Q: What sequence folds into this?
């Protein structure tokens, strides 16, 4: 077998592994079941693509979104990896099946609902497999922030091929969710590999809402580069974009209700711009690679700490200073509580834990970064020197308990 580093150079053109990639890749090459928890942008794809190139047979990649699969396909083909997607929108499915059976695919991307069908299982039994890669693996857990029942149907497929190694990957899973993923996908506890979560160049700040539009306009005035403002509804997105346009900065709205060509144009304009502000719902950001985003603002409470980490993580990917500012109000907690009461009973404890963790984050008088990292099981010093509370310690009397009141009621 050639060595992984030479494949890293020759196929991917990278000088070295980053962070935990090397440990993940060596476990996979040794055939060991693994769960890799690595922040967005850490290079999870390489952890299965490189073994897929080195090992004989095809790596089946389970991925939840067709659009992401097609992006991945293009990226893989660009470096000469033999890859295909098998989804409802692909017209070349028969050809893809043939390529798989002839041993001509390194990677085969599928959605979980297809992967769990008997046709697919029969197909796999007639070919040769190198690896199962389960991307966005937090979707398998009800404790995760994005549970998808289809992911639960994967286990019987995996167990049909007990000798094929499995690699689960996720950017965001708290300690509870990690344990559940291991359990659900049949990965041993010592198969967990976690990369560091700290993003030292991001300055975290959290404020109670006062006049959100003005507060965000002030933030924009202080931050010259491109920025993302997350709003909670489509209507709020458009209204806020219109109001913020008065700051004189180019401003666009982005949400799933816009006509596809407009949405695509707004996104492309933002990616190309050096000073644009995009006001978006959380639909924006997945799969967007813009390294120079200088600030991310939240006009309201995110869904969970995982979502907050992922959304703020879109700032400062180039390593230069960036700001993440969240504006929240008591009504956000009231609404979230109401939604919590509407979900199935089985999911309520997870929802409650999520909300309570957010309450602790917004109301702490201590270091935001420490609290955030502790959520992902990372140790951190008591004072990061780069969050609002460390830079301007609040007076003890400033501490409010609005969120806690809504949570305990
Ligand atoms: P993730 O899925 O963890 O968010 P990706 O797999 O999309 O991250 O990778 C993010 C970026 O990092 C990609 O542009 C990828 O080409 C790049 N990358 C991955 N591994 C390396 C490496 N070892 N050296 C340099 N760049 C890398
Ligand atoms: Mg990825």
A:
């Amino acid at each position: 077998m050639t060595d992984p580093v030479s494949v890293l150079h020759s196929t991917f053109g990278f000088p070295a592994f980053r962070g935990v990639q090397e440990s993940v890749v060596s476990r996979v090459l040794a055939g060991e079941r693994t769960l890799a928890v690595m922040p967005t942008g850490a290079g999870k794809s390489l952890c299965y693509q490189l073994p897929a190139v080195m090992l004989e047979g095809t790596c089946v990649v389970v991925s939840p979104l067709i659009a992401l699969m097609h992006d991945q396909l293009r990226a893989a083909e660009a470096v000469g990896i033999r890859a295909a997607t098998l989804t409802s929108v692909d017209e070349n499915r028969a050809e893809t099946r043939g390529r798989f059976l002839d041993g001509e695919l390194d990677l085969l991307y599928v959605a979980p609902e297809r992967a769990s069908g008997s046709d697919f299982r029969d197909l796999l039994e007639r070919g040769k497999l190198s690896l199962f890669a389960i991307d966005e693996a937090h979707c398998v857990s009800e404790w995760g922030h994005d549970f998808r029942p289809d992911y639960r149907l994967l286990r019987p497929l995996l167990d049909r091929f007990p000798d094929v190694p499995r690699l689960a990957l996720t950017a965001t899973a708290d300690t509870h969710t990690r344990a559940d993923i291991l359990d659900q996908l049949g990965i041993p506890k010592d198969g967990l590999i976690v990369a560091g979560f700290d993003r030292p160049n991001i300055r975290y700040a959290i404020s109670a809402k006062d006049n959100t539009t003005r507060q965000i306009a002030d933030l924009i005035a202080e931050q010259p580069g491109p920025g993302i403002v997350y709003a909670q509804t489509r209507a709020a997105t458009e209204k806020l974009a219109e109001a913020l346009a008065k700051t004189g900065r180019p401003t666009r709205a982005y949400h799933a209700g816009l006509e596809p060509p407009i949405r695509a144009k707004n996104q492309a304009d933002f990616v190309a711009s050096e000073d644009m502000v995009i006001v978006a719902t959380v639909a924006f950001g997945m799969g967007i690679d813009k390294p120079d985003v200088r600030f991310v603002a939240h006009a309201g409470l995110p869904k969970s700490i995982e979502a907050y980490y992922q959304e703020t993580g879109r700032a400062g990917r180039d390593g230069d200073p960036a700001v993440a500012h969240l504006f929240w109000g008591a009504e956000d907690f009231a609404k979230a509580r109401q939604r919590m009461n509407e979900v199935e009973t089985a999911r309520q404890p997870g929802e409650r834990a999520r909300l309570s963790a957010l309450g602790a984050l917004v109301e702490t008088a201590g270091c935001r970064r420490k609290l955030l990292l502790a959520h992902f099981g990372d140790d951190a010093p008591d004072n990061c020197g780069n969050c609002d509370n460390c830079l301007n310690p609040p007076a003890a009397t400033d501490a409010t308990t609005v969120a806690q009141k809504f949570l305990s009621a």
In short: Residues 14, 17-18, 21, 38, 40-46 surround adenosine-5'-diphosphate (ligand 1) (CB under 6 Å). The longest strand covers residues 202-208. Residues 170 and 199 are 17 Å apart (CA to CA). The mean pLDDT is 92.
